[in-house]
Amino acid sequence: MPRFAPHAMVLVVFVLCAGCTTSSTPSDGDGTAVSRTIDSLTTQFASHMRAGHMDSVAALYTENAVLMPPNSPTATGRAAIRDALSGMVQGATLDDFRLTTTDVRVSGDLARERGRYSMSMTAPGQGTMADSGKYVVVWQRQSDGSWLVDSDIWNSDISAAPTAPAPDSGKTGG
After folding, report:
1. Is residue 69 included in any domain, yes or no?
2. 59 falls in which pLDDT band (50, 70, 90)?
3. Pairing state of beta strands 147-156 and 93-107?
4. Which of 30-44, 123-137, 142-156 has the lowest mean pLDDT?
5. CB 114 within 8 A of CB 102
6. Which end of the chain has a smaller Cβ tally under 10 Å, C or N?
7. Which residues form the domain of 125?
């Protein structure tokens, strides 16, 4: 199978970083209610991604959210996240996508989610590509009690392909 291009890796984090508005869910002392809410939002997020609804995906992030994909520039804000997503999934088909939340910790109006992902997608001219790895998402409770993604970062378990050394343009033969 071909390796994921950097833009395909960005797709993974967007799919992983689930968030959207929901009704207020008060935290019970151990965060179980928040964990259930985050699980539900993760499912909703994946559905929007599979449908290619990038405006809906971007709406799941805070206005000033930060997305930090591997091997790509940081995207800051909903518009930048939407534009980055749109460019990364253009023409590709998400064949399979699985998220497993491994831990959620809640502290006040912030929740940190750790998890694992696996996915495959088909891109024109590249065939089917598979990836798996881990992610961290920081959620922020909004004034209406809903949760949105504020910070999003992930990386693959698959080693990056080695790059060829740059040609030595500063030396002359002799």
Report:
1. yes
2. very high
3. unpaired
4. 30-44
5. yes
6. C
7. 6-156
Which pair of structure tokens corresponds to residue 15? 């799919």
User: Is position 47 within any domain?
Assistant: yes
Cα separation, 105 vs 72, in Å, equals 28
Token output for 55: 């405006």
* CATH number of the domain to which 60 belongs: 3.10.450.50
pLDDT at position 132:
94
The answer to whether residue 130 is domain-embedded is yes
